[in-house]
Amino acid sequence: MYTNHTRWYVGITNNGPRRKREHEAKNKRKCKHWKVWDLESVKHSLALETELHDLGMLDKDSKGGYNNKSTYIYVYKKKPTIID
């Protein structure tokens, strides 16, 4: 199955629901296919985020305001298609 990674956004956070609301407010639309996982480690979250950026996911490895509690990684489809 082919996935166009350039349509997906990845980031890390310490609060998934809050971060989702922030993205929806910024983009002025609902986040499609939102999913969040707790990796229980900032080190693991950062490593996976970098790996997914290397695959082409959006927000090209710009490490924003994460902190030592940012153990959650999230993805959502930032550029949905008509099928979505």
Topology:
Elements: E1 8-13, H1 16-27, E2 32-38, H2 42-54, E3 72-77
Antiparallel strand pairs: 1-3, 2-3
Please provide a written account of the structure.
This protein is α+β, with helices and mostly antiparallel strands and 84 residues long. It has a 3-stranded antiparallel beta sheet.
User: How many DSSP-defined strands?
Assistant: 3
Number of helices: 2
**Largest sheet geometry:** 3 strands, antiparallel
- Could you give the order of strands across the largest sheet? 1-3-2
Shape: globular
Percentage beta strand: 15-25%
Task: State the helical fraction.
Answer: 25-40%
Please tag this protein with its features.
84 residues; 2 helices; globular; alpha+beta
Please summarize what this structure is.
By secondary structure, the chain is of the alpha+beta class. Helix content is 30%, strand content 23%. The longest helix has 13 residues, at 42-54.
